Amino acid sequence: MNINYVKKYSNALGRDMEYKTYGDKGHPVLVFPSQDGRFYDYQDFDMVGVLSSFIDKGKIRLICADSIDRETWSDTQGDHHRRIELHERWYHYIVDELIPEVRHFSNETFIVTGCSMGGYHAGNFFFRRPDLFDTLLALSGLYYAGYFFPNYNDPLVYDNSPQDFLRQMPDDHPYWDVYRHRRIILCVGQGAWEDELLDSTRQMDALLKEKNVPAWIDYWGHDSAHDWAWWRKQIVYFMDHLLTEEAVEYVI
Known about the structure:
Layout: E1 3-10, E2 15-22, E3 27-32, H1 41-44, H2 47-50, H3 52-56, E4 60-65, H4 80-102, E5 110-115, H5 117-128, E6 133-139, H6 155-159, H7 162-168, H8 174-180, E7 183-188, H9 195-210, E8 216-219, H10 228-248
Parallel strand pairs: 3-4, 3-5, 5-6, 6-7, 7-8
Antiparallel strand pairs: 1-2, 2-4
């Protein structure tokens, strides 16, 4: 497996940012870490390992991005506007700097995925920019920003809260038709530490049904906990389905 580490200055953030790639062929998969996580967590928690057969066969290549959650979503005692403004700058780092750098060709689209907070980030990026992503695979995600910004709201919080901006998006917005031609998978367990994620996923389930957006919303059992052991099982299960479907039906 070809593994590449990159550290590069981000103009959007005014600092060096790091990421790792695994594999150099196949459908690109942009990976966000879980809350406060780092770009190397996907490897450290053996998510890269369980996906290695797909990578080695040239079916996918992973791009594991870094986060700044500790300064934004997790800094609940910090200044709210500063937090969300910094998150928005990180959003533009991903969209305007990282994605163009790792694309193999100009109109290449990505699978976007993540677990827990990474699932939120995956959903937020997908629904904000469906032109960049052909597939959303979110595991144990929470999809409303207000959870991290209680008693505070401004346009940037709204823009980063899929449950809010999708609910208010006009029915004739062109993104609705784009969503309907994308692949959307939201998965959540019903076991330990999944309660809030389960509620948020159910709300997204109802919202997408109301808007006639096809999606695979998969509720795993009461033994399925908010934990890497389950996410390792889920990522292989869904990736196998996605790549089989792609081979038969899906043209990038």
